[in-house]
Amino acid sequence: MCLSFLPAAEMKVTRSSILNLLLVAAILGTAPFAIQRAWESGNVYLFTQGFFDDLLARLSGPGRFRFILQPLMAIFLGFRSGLKDAQAGRPTFLWVMLFHPELRKEVWRQAIATVRDLIALAILLDLVAQALIFREIRPGPALIIAPPLILIPYALSRALVNRVARRHRTPAPVPR
Prior knowledge:
By secondary structure, the chain is mainly alpha-helical. Helix content is about 75%, strand content about 0%.
């Protein structure tokens, strides 16, 4: 089947596009059932006692290794980005986010581009873990739990590595 009406640039299939397609399909496929369950029970679930009890069950059930592996991957990516920031002479990530509105948009875009696949994978793994542990899937908690699991270690490690690298950077030799 030829899709000649699409530009060639849009036909490129990447790992990111497949991962994002899976994520969108999983959320769109499970959201109607979660909404129906909330409507019928009158319980929205998010931030209820059951939600917090289920958080603890996620830590001990199938897939608990992701609570170690995913933050470690985020720390690695933050380490790499922090070194790039230090080499470019940029202030730390958190400092830019708080006090440099002129750089905030560019740095935020770069951070999201770096961790978007890891966040998508974290959400998908949470959905799978819910199916295995609870025998039902609620996309809301996955969308709330997974991003901070990645973004917090990423932001902290990026800022810390930048600060340490800039402090220990040897100045360039002065030409004679």
